Amino acid sequence: MTLETVLLAVGPTDADRIGQLADAVLEVAMPADATVVLAHVFTSDEYDEVLDRLEFDRTVDEIEPDAVAARHSTIHDLEDVFDEHGVDYSVRGAVGDHGSTIVDLATSTDADRVVVGGRRRSPTGKAVFGSTAQEVLLSAPCPVTFVRSDDHAG
């Protein structure tokens, strides 16, 4: 299977693991000269909060999720890493349930690999994934790389 498109899905809790996520993507994307789709997925509540925080003018007809994602600091940090390594990328924003929306993005972008982050859910070190990561792992149309954060909080 040729690797042409890697979908890196990030959300509001991924700012602390940008380096780990970028490394995981670079490891698979660079040798294949693949394009990376940087996707920031927001729930409706998160989207409203981000619109306020980033001071978007809500009087305009409609604010596209792609534009909101492009102004998010997590995406900027990842863009810096990919620019530094000469990796082609595009930015996508989406609003909806995290898990199913990531799966939908993987399908619509024809992704060959999905990279998602998550946390270990118990201090005993059981391999229990959060609901978002679990849904993506079970439902994505392609292989999924799960990047666990270094923290071991339950």
Automatic annotation (TrEMBL):
CDD domains: USP-like
Domain UspA, residue spans: 5-148
Superkingdom, taxonomy of origin: Archaea
InterPro entries xref list: Rossmann-like_a/b/a_fold, Universal_stress_UspA, UspA
Gene3D superfamilies assigned to the protein according to its UniProt record, in alphabetical order: HUPs
Family: Belongs to the universal stress protein A family.
Official protein name in the record: Universal stress protein
Organism: Natrinema halophilum
